[in-house]
Amino acid sequence: MTNSITQFFLSGNFQYRIYDLGRKLTLLPNSLFQRIEAQEVLYPYPFQQKAWLAFLFWSKADKTKATIWFLQFPIDELGYLKQASRDAFLQELLVHVSTNLQAQQSGVKMQDSLKESAFAFKPRQDRLAIFHAFATLELKQQASKYYQPARIYLQGKTGYEQWQSLGLQGIADIIARLHLDDNEHLLSTALPQLPTIPLINFAENLEHNSIGVELSFILHQRLQQALETENTNSQLIAALIRAISNSYDKSIRQQIILQLLQTDSAKNIEVIAAIASRAWQDITTKALLPLFLQVLSYQQQDAFNIILVDLMGIPKMREPILKSLRAPERSALLSKRIGGFLGGFAKQQTTH
């Protein structure tokens, strides 16, 4: 019997790629996922105490007919993938394969019963678009029909105000192919002139691919402009932070976050949530973590608790956060939020 998802792919002689979809679209190397399934390593990108996974696999003999699974599995209190849930899915998979083999033998159309699995989920449209953009790239297939019109738009040939015809899939295809067709430079040239809505759409997608110094600099400029306007747009600021979180340059990322955390805009729930969910790897420094927690304390207790629990579920985040929470120089408001957090946690433990 198949005792892991990895073994299913290997025994079926499939080629496969596995992506995390929880925070950003992130490729999980096959060898790493094998260790995750064996509980040899903690799950690296938990989001809301779950692993949100996309499986792309195909027969070695025919790359044109790939199969996609979107599955979510719970993460346990220690940070490992729950094997009991994975095993329950494997039982479903065994039934699914058996049913389809019988259907194939009797000439009945095969059913994709895994869509009804308790572990299946349907990603949001923007996540579907970016996943399919990267999947076609992996499978060496052409981009969608929206790709070239999106490139023409970035060239300014149709006018930057004429963004209404931009397809979400076209934007995703640009981002997936950011390092092809001179797209990164093309986007860097267009960004200073983009209206707010297309700027947000491109920025939110940029969190899924690494960006260089030129593009990071332009995004920083747009962020400064947004912060200096009288009526700041929290959605735009959050989108720009999401984009910058994937900059190659760690020092640029941390400098920008430090600057942002010292503004009133950071107190907006959409902005602080973007920092927590997309730039978590940058806020553990001695300079940033106390400031981040202080800004987070301006949120209502429930929001404070949810964001803190989510962050502490990420490997290597728990200890620095706990250390910072114990710091004697914390503010009265942060102390109050910490008390509410610990009280809520203790109450939760007694009800289980």
Task: Describe the secondary structure blueprint for this structure.
Layout: H1 5-11, E1 14-20, E2 26-28, H2 30-37, E3 50-59, E4 62-74, H3 83-106, H4 125-138, H5 147-154, H6 168-176, H7 183-190, H8 196-206, H9 213-228, H10 234-244, H11 250-261, H12 269-278, H13 289-296, H14 301-312, H15 318-325, H16 332-351
Antiparallel strand pairs: 1-2, 1-3, 3-4
Helix pairs in contact: 4-6, 5-6, 6-8, 7-9, 8-10, 9-10, 10-12, 12-14, 14-16
State the main characteristics.
4 strands; 2 domains; flat; alpha+beta; 9% strand; four-stranded antiparallel beta sheet; 352 residues
Give a short overview.
The chain has 352 residues and is of the alpha+beta class.
Helix content: 40-55%
Give the count of structural domains: 2
Helix/strand/pairing class, anyone?
alpha+beta
Mean pLDDT level: 90
Low-confidence stretches are 101-111
How many strand segments? 4
Beta-strand content bin: 5-15%
Query: Can you tell me the overall shape?
Result: flat
Radius of gyration from the CA trace? Answer: 22 Å
* Helix/strand order: HEEHEEHHHHHHHHHHHHHH
Assembly type of the chains comes to single chain
In the sheet with the most strands, the strands line up as 2-1-3-4
Helical segment count: 16
Largest sheet: 4 strands, antiparallel
Spatial separation of the terminal alpha carbons: 34 Å
Characterization of this structure:
The protein is of the alpha+beta class and 352 residues long. The protein folds into two domains: 112 residues, no CATH class; 227 residues. It is 53% helix and 9% strand. A four-stranded antiparallel beta sheet has the order 2-1-3-4. Strand 3 and strand 4 form a beta hairpin. Helix 4 packs across helix 6. The relative contact order is 0.07. About 3% of the residues have low confidence.
